[in-house]
Specification:
Elements (H helix, E strand, L loop, with lengths): L2 H22 L2 H19 L2 H9 L5 H33 L2 H6 L7 H27 L9 H28 L3 H7 L2 H4 L18 H5 L3 H13 L6 H24 L5
């Protein structure tokens, strides 16, 4: 078999292993998935009327804020899901299975590829579930074209890939699962200080640059524009640059740490 064939075969095996672990131990994924769902329900049913008035004017109904909120929570779901990836990678590194893999005739990079592909698939499934809850509470995307839907899906997959590689690196440098979970918390904290819940221009002046110049805000604005059929402006290019930059950074960081001697 060629090197490429071996890499594909071993990566597929590692992918099945990670998906099997996720199926046998779903509690971590479910706990992380509950965070964006609870925030969605909280902001829609507790703050929805007030937030809609602030965004759409005094006569705006709750649906105005639902339309604004859901795209941001879809990307927050990805950040939340990838925390489980950091924990899973840390467990593999500290429980001895990686040392066992290093003695076997398998493609070296297949372990990380299996984690990344498995996490991206879980992120997509989680986004679909949160999106279904969003539709149930009133979110509609009637103005988006088929091409915009396809672009939105591509953005979600690309963003999930970028954050997953960062999460893998965090898992590799963490001494245990608890530390990995704590190290990956910025992936769920950053959406809270982005444009996911309120527009950037509504924030205090000193805080606006913090919210604007981070990866989640341009990605959220791009996804919001694609799903609602509104203008994206320069956010599309910024989101693409952030995704590609984080993916390359996470890949280089993860592979360099993985190639070091096992701890």
């Amino acid at each position: 078999m060629s090197t490429l064939s071996l890499a594909v075969r071993d990566s597929s095996t590692m992918l099945r292993r990670n998906l099997l672990h996720a199926r046998r131990y779903p509690s971590l994924t479910l706990n992380l998935l509950l965070t964006p769902i609870m925030l969605l329900l909280l902001f829609v049913y507790v703050f929805g009327d007030t937030m809609s008035a602030g965004i759409g004017g005094a006569g705006a109904g709750r649906s105005a804020y639902v339309a604004y909120l859901v795209p941001g929570l879809l990307l927050m779901t990805i950040g939340s899901t990838t925390i489980g990836t950091a924990v899973s990678v840390s467990n593999d590194m500290t429980e001895g299975i990686i040392a066992r893999f290093r003695t076997m005739a398998i493609h070296r990079g297949s372990v990380l590829v299996g984690h990344v592909v498995g996490s991206v698939l879980q992120s997509v499934i989680s986004v679909v579930l949160v999106g279904a809850v969003g539709v149930a509470v009133g979110f509609r995307s009637t103005d988006a074209t088929a091409l915009e839907w396809l672009a939105a899906f591509g953005l979600l997959v690309l963003f999930a890939t970028a954050l997953t590689w960062i999460a893998v690196g965090m898992g590799l440098v963490s001494p245990n699962a608890e530390a990995a979970s704590n190290n990956a918390m910025p992936l769920i904290f950053l959406p809270l200080i982005s444009s996911a819940f309120v527009p950037v221009h509504a924030m205090p002046g000193w805080f606006q640059p913090i919210a604007e110049y981070q990866p989640f805000t341009p990605a959220i604005e791009t996804l919001r524009g694609l799903l609602l059929g509104t203008e994206i402006g320069h956010n599309g290019w910024l989101a693409l640059a952030w995704c590609l930059g984080l993916a390359v950074l996470g890949y280089r960081w993860s592979t360099s740490k993985f190639d070091q001697d096992p701890r």
